[in-house]
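#onboarding

Welcome to the new folks! Below is a worked example of what a typical request in this channel looks like: someone posts a single protein sequence, and someone else replies with the predicted structure as tokens. Don't worry about understanding the tokens yet, we'll cover that in week two.

Example request:
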Amino acid sequence: MNKTFFGCWPTMITPFTGDNKIDYTAVENLTEWFIARGCDGIFAVCQSSEMFFLSEQEKLGLARAVKNTAAGRVKVIASGHTADDISQQIDELGRMAETGVDAVVLVSNRLVKQNEDESILRNNFYDILRQLPQAAFGFYECPYPYLRLLTTEFLADCGSRKNIIFLKDVSCALDIQRERRTALEGTELALFNANTATLLDSLIAGYDGYSGVMGNFHIDMYKWMYTHFMEQPELAREVSDFLTLAAVCEIRAYPVNAKFYHCLTGVPMDIQTRSKSKEILNENARHEIQSLIRMEKILRKKLGL
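Example response:
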């Protein structure tokens, strides 16, 4: 089946000004940077966007800015699904749908408390579908504030519905990914892996693409691997190994280090964030990003990028 969602999608960071407002000039420039480097879509207003630290108007404004800048050249999806109360969630999801994004992404851990069973998740999910029948939805197994993986049975149910078209898989487990791929064979629900270490093998197993943090650094290399892994398997494995080790940056000083990276690679922005202190970008963390950029340059030359 030819799916409408596929390829490589960065989970977009939110640039802020020094006085802690969204820097919309940098948002537009970053959107252009992703598109110029071959992304197939952009996941805006997600955890990388610090959506749990944005106001309702900021979330909507950010989604509109990315959607308007992309101007149909790539798809744009957005979440902003942060409220605790289900009625408030329906309101915020409905407003996000009105921005015109290509899909509104549901966060699995918002639909059910950590100690509650799947029946509650299902009931809340069906309530959303009833009240927002015209919206297209995706799912994101966001690890904050806690990780709630979806069952294969539930995903199979989603796959039978025409308006559930995207999963950002955070299982980090090939056995789970292969099981999901089998269960969703022939459906329109696209499977995107957020985990770099298992990405190549999940693509070989039939996954539809990548959507993750490190797309903020080198989305073009992910796109190269996605495009060429079948005809150049040895080189694709080499790229995969590089990307896997580079992904250690995520647990170091992210998202501050991503903003520093863009300052060095053509998208000026303040390193201000709301979720972390920018002091975590110490001298060592800066050297790590500078080393990453030099290593990228060598591999990009080998790949013809």
